[in-house]
Amino acid sequence: MIFWQLFISFFKIGIFSFGGGYATIPLIEKEIIATHHWLTLPQFCQVVAVAGMTPGPVGINCATFVGYRIGGVIGSTIATIAVVLPSIIIVSLLYYIFKKYLAKGEEAVKVFFSAMAPVVLSLVLTAAISIAMEGIKDPRSIFIAIAAFILSIATKLNILFILAGAGLAGLILYL
Question: For residue 45, what are the domain limits?
Fold first, then answer.
């Protein structure tokens, strides 16, 4: 039963998470915390943090980690397949439709993706606000968040170095 629930939950997330990555986080959060109560918000924030530092798409990594916490290796496999399956189906259908009907209509594709940009932006901002509200609670965490934000905008440092530095600063400031 739990494996079926994992599949259905992550399949729904996969269907409605256009934009991938951080845009999937609010959908995963709602399904995992509010609907099924599989994880608490602090546990979910830990999953998102690890998923963000692990190579690969954040949404897929979240599905893998949540699936593992709920159902072990089988759960992680089911959740991962379920979250990517809608994309595979949708892209295959869109490719077929594009090749058959829109081969000359590149403008229609540009209009579609232009219309989707605000949707993806709002999902990413929702995820950022949700995680910030949970994780940024005291002056030390605010300092780390602001410093990481400034470094990511003002420098050309690789984001992995900024994440590692933030993690190191957290260890130093909280130990």
Answer: 2-104
